[in-house]
């Protein structure tokens, strides 16, 4: 019987699926890095989210480990090359939270367009700032989506239904072109997307080639008054360059769910009135959490039954 340790909280449905399949499951969702290092050698598989870091030291200690299941999308907390070298399979659940993230991004767009959080804050301070709060409609505006995987596709489909023009960029254009065409979006290179988009949202993994891809040079190519959204990974946007662009007005507003430093992001950035911030809640819906847990459970069950 395969032994599985669940190191971070996941929805109970996934836990039950693993147990019903006959796997020996240990729930240790507050395990420290030091304790995990001592006990990981007992287990054939581990289930993690973003808290647990699977580095070279941990993988060396995991003498029986055959699989790592990340309940979520990002795998930047797993040393993937070393896991592969050690013969450890790595699974994640990119299909589960795509709608939740897409809906959060849409909410951020509506918020920036109509200044909802600013209006709410004023009302709570006894202010009636009706004349100051004239916004704009997103219908007819252009949304640039960088990274047209599951989340980008889902967001683009919703944006088209709202009457937006959608520009899509992806490094694997041949692979996603049919999905771009399917929703009536337009494939674009980055320079075109930067120049023509009213809103720009990034949906790429954090890799060496994507770190700070939205930097001073990229922002300079964007239209004046652009709105930037990041619900992918914090390091994709150079926060110093973003602050400069917010100061100059080049970027009119930003909405950030992820940050270069979590859980203590740059206060100078977070506290700006033209920046909407949320604490990495992109996948924070009940439906997405159920999906994350059951998808990785299915993958682990299939792996150990094959």
Give your account of this protein's structure.
There is one protein chain. A seven-stranded parallel β-sheet has the order 8-7-6-9-10-11-12, with helices on both faces. With 306 residues, it is of the alpha/beta class. The model has no long low-confidence stretch (mean pLDDT 97). The chain has helices at 12-20, 33-39, 56-61, 80-85, 98-114, 116-124, 150-161, 173-182, 190-196, 216-220, 239-248, 267-270, 286-305; strands at residues 3-6, 24-27, 45-48, 67-70, 89-91, 142-146, 165-169, 186-187, 199-202, 226-230, 251-256, 275-277. Helix 1 (12-20) runs parallel beside helix 13 and helix 5 packs across helix 7 (150-161). 40% of the residues lie in helices and 16% in strands.
Entry summary:
The protein has 306 residues and is an alpha/beta fold. Helix content is 40%, strand content 16%.
Features:
alpha/beta; 13 helices; five-stranded parallel β-sheet; elongated; seven-stranded parallel β-sheet; 306 residues
């Amino acid at each position: 019987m395969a032994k599985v340790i669940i190191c971070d909280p996941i929805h109970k449905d996934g836990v039950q699926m693993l147990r019903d399949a006959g796997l020996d499951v240990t729930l240790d969702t507050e395990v420290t890095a030091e304790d995990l290092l001592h006990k990981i050698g007992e287990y054939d598989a581990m289930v993690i989210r973003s808290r647990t870091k699977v580095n070279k030291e941990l993988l060396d200690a995991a003498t029986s480990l055959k699989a790592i299941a990340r309940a979520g999308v990002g795998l930047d907390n797993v040393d993937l090359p070393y896991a592969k070298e050690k013969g450890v399979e790595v699974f994640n659940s990119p299909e589960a939270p795509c709608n939740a993230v897409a809906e959060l991004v849409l909410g951020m767009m509506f918020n920036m367009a109509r200044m909802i959080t600013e209006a709410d804050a004023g009302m709570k301070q006894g202010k009636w700032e009706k004349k100051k709060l004239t916004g704009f409609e997103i219908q007819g505006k252009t949304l640039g989506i960088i990274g047209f995987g599951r989340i980008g596709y889902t967001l683009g489909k919703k944006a088209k239904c709202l009457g937006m023009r959608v520009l899509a960029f992806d490094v694997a254009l041949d692979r996603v072109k049919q999905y771009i065409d399917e929703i009536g979006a337009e494939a674009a290179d980055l320079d075109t997307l930067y120049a023509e988009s009213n809103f720009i949202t990034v949906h790429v993994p954090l890799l060496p080639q994507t770190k700070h891809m939205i930097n001073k040079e990229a922002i300079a190519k964007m239209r004046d008054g652009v709105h930037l959204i990041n619900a992918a990974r914090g390091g994709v946007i150079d926060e110093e360059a973003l602050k400069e662009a917010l100061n100059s007005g080049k970027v009119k507003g930003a909405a950030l769910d992820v940050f270069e430093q979590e859980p203590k992001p740059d206060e100078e950035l977070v506290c700006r009135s033209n920046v909407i911030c949320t604490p990495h809640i992109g996948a924070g819906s009940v439906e997405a959490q159920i999906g994350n847990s059951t998808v990785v459970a299915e993958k682990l069950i299939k792996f150990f039954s094959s």
